[in-house]
Structure formats: C-alpha cells, structure tokens
Prior knowledge:
By secondary structure, the chain is an alpha+beta fold. It has three domains: 31-128, no CATH class; 132-246; 259-386, CATH 3.30.1330.60. The protein is 58% helix and 7% strand. It contains eleven helices and five strands; from the N terminus they run ααααααααββαβαβαβ. Strands 1-2-5-3-4 form a five-stranded mixed sheet. The longest helix has 57 residues, at 201-257.
Amino acid sequence: xxxxxxxxxxxxxxxxxxxxxxxxxxxxxxxxxxxxxxxxxxxxxxxxxxxxxxxxxxxxxxxxxxxxxxxxxxxxxxxxxxxxxxxxxxxxxxxxxxxxxxxxxxxxxxxxxxxxxxxxxxxxxxxxxxxxxxxxxxxxxxxxxxxxxxxxxxxxxxxxxxxxxxxxxxxxxxxxxxxxxxxxxxxxxxxxxxxxxxxxxxxxxxxxxxxxxxxxxxxxxxxxxxxxxxxxxxxxxxxxxxxxxxxxxxxxxxxxxxxxxxxxxxxxxxxxxxxxxxxxxxxxxxxxxxxxxxxxxxxxxxxxxxxxxxxxxxxxxxxxxxxxxxxxxxxxxxxxxxxxxxxxxxxxxxxxxxxxxxxxxxxxxxxxxxxxxxxxxxxxxxxxxxxxx
Length: 389
C-alpha cells in the first residue's frame, strides 16, 4: 500500500490515480448477523452472539483497547512504515465495530495489534536512535545467553556478537565430546566385566543405550542451536545492512535536493524505497519534443539522482497542460518522455529502450489550468524510480 503526498505550488488537486492511497484488506471470514436474528437467538437462549448494535464507545469492550493500541502504533509510524498491516487491521476493526464479531475474532485482532505496535516501536527506535545497532547487538547477545543457560554452559563474559556465538558453539561441542568419552569408557569397562560376570551385562548395555540416546539427542540439540545462532546472525547482519543502506540513500538524496532550484525539479521519496523526480525545468518549444542544448546540465543532475538507486527500474512520464486537442497532447507528451528517456540512457550508459516511457497528456495535472503558473506546473516530466529496500 502506497501513499504519497504532493506539494503544489499552485492550488491543490487530488493526487494522480497512480499515486493515490490504496488500501489492501484480506477477507476476514466473519459472519455478520442481522439485528433481528441476534435478538431471536438471545430470546431462545441457545447461543449468544455479539449484536451489530454493540457500541464501540464501551471502554470495557475489546474494541477500545485495540483502537488505543492501533493509535499508539500510528504514533510510532506504523501507518507509513508498515502500511499493509496497519490498514488491514484498521479495516478489520472498523468492520467489527460496525457489525460485531465473536471472541475469536477479537482475540486475533488483539494479537495482531500488539505485534504491529511492537514492530512499529522497534522500527521507530532503529530510525531515531543513533544506538540502533547497539540495541540489535544487545538482543543478539541476550538470545545467546538464554541458549547457554538452557544447556548448562557459560559464555565468556568479555565476548559479544559473533565471537560470543563461536564460544557458545565450542562449549556445546565440548560437552557433546565429554558425553562421548563417557560412553566409550563405559563400553571398555563393560567388555572387561563381561569376562568376569555376565550378570551385569544387561544393565551395562541398558546404560550404554541410554547414553547413546542422550548423545544423539545432544547432537540434535547442538545442530538446532547452531542453526538458530546462524539465523540470528543473518538477521542481525541483514537489519544492519538495510538500515545503513537506507541512511546512506537518504543522506545522498538530501544533498542532491539542494542542487535543484524549486522551478527546476523536486524529489519525493516513496514508502516502498523508491523516488519520484518531478522535473519542471525542461522547456520544449510549443508542439515540439526536441530537447534544447542548454538542458544537458539539468539532465546530468537528474541522472545523478538515479545513480543513488542502482539497478532500479526506471520510467519516464510526460505531462502537458490542457491547451489544445487532448489526443495531440497525449502524442506530444509521449514523444517528450521518449526524448528524455533516450537522453538519460546515454547519461547512464544504458542500452536504448531500457527506460520505459508513457505519455499522459493533460490527464494528470498537479494544479488547475486556469492560470499561467498552474499550466507551467502541469507541463512537466516525471522520472519514476521503482526501487525496493
């Protein structure tokens, strides 16, 4: 789900259909009962279902607490950072408040909103605190300590991170080896005793079998622990890599914004990790799609923004005002988009045709066309950078 806000230098209009808020909700599978049917069931006294007339204002009901936690998650940025989960839960809660729901549905939503709140709070901490990586390392070390306590070993207190994980694996391996030595010793003793007395053979065999089972179980536990430690290490590295890359990208974009004048271009970052570069400063002659020689410097700066998103899919969109015939404007906007796309391909050393193009003519204005300033805003080139974090 993507939501992008547009700043208009003229008067505000609804954002284009491509850039409007889209809410995705999964089917909940709830049964909605008419009020008359609920009343009949209560009178019969057989089964009690929540009626649609239940008030969301009742602070003792589950909806109030779920709504409170959803609002708290919104304050932590869930609406922007976790949009699909946020809007899905918001839609389900609205439907439950309107039509009523059973205890199982409320319990599921209570679990989902708590998970959403915890995720939003974690992302907020990672984004706002300079010690975000320190917090991740602390959680990783805590998980290792819990595994160590579970299997009765102690990690060297001076170690942390990967070195602590290696120390834990080494000590678990030593414990497994110790059990194996005990098993081998018992087997030697058993062979000696079997020559003196066969009466103890069965007991020794039973003990050996038990130890073999214990060693096999310990080996399995060691393997599972190694797997968990490896997954935890991978998760920590991945989180650190994503946060670092995102921070570097945001810093680069902030620096590049200052290279454009307001009348030349503006950069909008999308929640999905991409960007929209609105270029107002490419001036074409009336009815023409030919780029002027003095546009090369501006196009080079546009290419610099694209380089911040290596490997991203690119699309150039052409837009016009509503002056003249609509079909002619559609063709003209497409030709202008193609001219800019070919120029960017040369700047970026890309093969011809790798940058997609589309012309929308006057159909997606940013401002009203009733003034020169509004028409100037609408005559633009949009460069869509489709990148994922």
